[in-house]
Amino acid sequence: MDSRTLQLTEAFVQVTAMWRYPVKSMLGEPIMEGRVDAEGLRADRVVAVIDEESGLVATAKHPRLWRNLLKYSATMDVDTVVITSPAGWKLNAASPDVDGRLSAELGRAVRVATDRPDGATVERPDPEDVLAEGVDAAVPAATLEIGMGTPGTTFVDYAPLHLITSATLAEVGVEPLRYRPNLVLQTPDGTPPFVENQWLGRELRIGDEIVLRVSVPTPRCSVPTLEHGDLPRSPRAVRTVLVRNRVDVPGFGVLPCAGCYAEVEQGGTIHVGDEVTLH
Q: Which domain of life does the protein's organism represent (predicted)?
């Protein structure tokens, strides 16, 4: 274990940004505080778009079909998920008009779902194939079950929370939101990039309440390379990781990774600015 990782138990580490994404693969919203329990961050990935033809959960991981989801945004208005379209309309996700409008704009029959069915799956092409062939190419796509690392029923990819450090982001040199993290952790100067690899199985304590357990590194798909709202494409967001940080992820194989997934051992409220300690 790198000696610099051990120093994080004493050095000042801080939550510097927090996001939730009420609809899977749509842009989310930055928040200053959020309630966390065993299922993750409250109101995160509580809604998804379902492809009526295949029954699969729509995700920008399959950019040929679903990259335009990243042009939409989703926010919370009290307890209501609100979807904003690039066409200009804004509707409650439960509105009877949403399915038809999304289907017309996305070019496929879809419906909005709030309950994740057992065995819910997504299609995920290899990001190297997408980089080589382009976002419109018909490349092979693996079918993966989502939410396997969480006790909840939200539409998270794997575990309840996704974290990434400032050290890793600085190494890649792209905007944090491309990786769609829940938490960005500011690490001390000199912290090595991809330090999250060395945290597996360890506890992160946030503020006075939260205890997380780091479970696996976060495998990267092609999503970080895609347009995100007004942000242009950025192939380097994955190319750098492909070269610098291929990791043997238990149960998944050797994959390009950035950040880590975490389980929630003790819940509570996280605030931007909270101190984080590694144990």
A: Bacteria
Task: Report the distance separating Cα 107 and Cα 103, nearest Å.
Answer: 6
Is 98 strand, coil or helix? helix
User: Token pair of 111, please?
Assistant: 């419906």
Residues 204-217: tens digit of each pLDDT: 999 999 999 999 99
How far is it, in rounded angstroms, from Cα 160 to Cα 40? 4
Domains in the chain and their CATH numbers?
3-278 (2.40.33.20)
pTM: predicted TM-score of the whole model, two decimal places = 0.94
Q: How far apart are the first and last CA of the chain?
A: 13
CB 9 within 8 A of CB 277: yes
Distance CA 274, CA 183 (A): 11
Using alpha carbons, select from 158, 169, 157, 164 the residue that is nearest to residue 181.
164
- Classify the C-alpha dihedral 246-57-142-127 as positive or negative: negative
pLDDT in tens, 82-97: 999 999 999 999 999 9
Give burial (CB, 10 Å; 0-12/13-18/19+) of 21: buried
Per residue in 215-273, pLDDT (tens digit) is 999 999 999 999 999 999 999 999 999 999 999 998 899 999 999 999 999 999 999 99
**DSSP letters for 45-64:** S-BEEEETTT-PBP-TTSHH
Q: Could you give the CA distance from residue 46 to residue 37 in angstroms, rounded to a whole number?
A: 14
68, 49 contact by CB (below 8 A): no
